[in-house]
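ok trying this again, last paste got cut off
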Amino acid sequence: MDLRTLTIEQLTASLRELQQHLPPTRAAELSQLQEAVQELQVHRVELEMENRALRETQQELEDSVRRFSDLFDHLPTGYLIVSLQGQIVGGNPAALLLLGQPSSEVIGKFVRRFVDSNDAGRLASHLEACLQSESQLTLELKLRGSRLDPLDVQLSSRLAPVTLVEERRIHIAVTDISELKRTQHMLEEINSEQEAFNYSISHDLRAPLVTISNYARIVLTDHGEALDDEGRGMVQRVENAAIRMEETLKLLLEYSTLAREEVVLQSLNLNEVVRDLVIEHRGVIQQMLAEVLVERDLPPVRGSRTILAQVLANLLTNALKYTRSGMAPKVEIGAGVTDGHVIIYVRDHGIGIEAKYHERIFQIFERLHGYSRYPGSGVGLAIARRAVERMKGRIWLDSKPGEGSCFYIELARG
């Protein structure tokens, strides 16, 4: 009988049978044999548990391999596995599609074969840099493949981790950025046209308006006595219209420029910004017998000093302008900190605005009142919103008719 082929139950049964036939003098040996069988039983249970855990681990590994293979094959981004010498040893279907070649024409070939000749040197430097760095490196170049026109792509490459079963590789994700490049080129053309348009506003359109305004003033000064009241009124309206149009063009240029110019954000002393604002407008404040109250110890904010000063100046002049008839303007300026952001407010006690217009007034050329009553171009608040957004903030309004308006600006704390 081969004991190695017996089960635990068979061994136990054999021991019981042996116990019945052994003399009492052999009882100690039988006890030792029973202990050995019990240890064997425990060891066999442990082995079965280990085998079960091993099978589960193997199953998980096989599932992981299947998931990786499925992801690798169906990933929309091209993926290449390259040797340290730049030879392609693997690639997913998306990469083969970008290269425009079947697997038989790609595997075993060097990457430089599929790159535009002008980018071959940059590719070599890129792969060399990957060998020296553990981080991911990117490079934009043109793939040639089987296409007549090269394809703009971005390579995102990194040195693969060390494994025990294969030599180290470089993993390269290949992303088609040709559409992005076309969009970028289109935006550059639009910006170029915008520059030409801005130049036209600054020179070709504003210059005739200045001429009209100047000549109207000369007519009124030198020949006003030869005109009757109606004639002088007409010339005066021509001058006013030219001045108004010039101001509108200037604001349009400002609005357009805000969308394109680079904005550098930094920590600002809000006390100094508001102090300079009040000093700059001291003349009109005194002329209108206005009262401007500024809260003390304003918190620092993160923004552009020039742009923030421009926005606050717009809100202050609006607060002074839209006052109730027969009342001296009163404006309050302050700020508080909420959830790590600074909320600046400019509050007036003027005519107020209905709730249905709270969003509309921030749109360009939106005016709620006639020009003769409250002069303005309808561009100022549109500029204010765009300016605040360029500083990564937001602006909104709280107002009721007859109860004044309060404009809020939220910016990051400085």
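PB: full thing came through this time. Residues 27-74 form the longest helix (48 residues).
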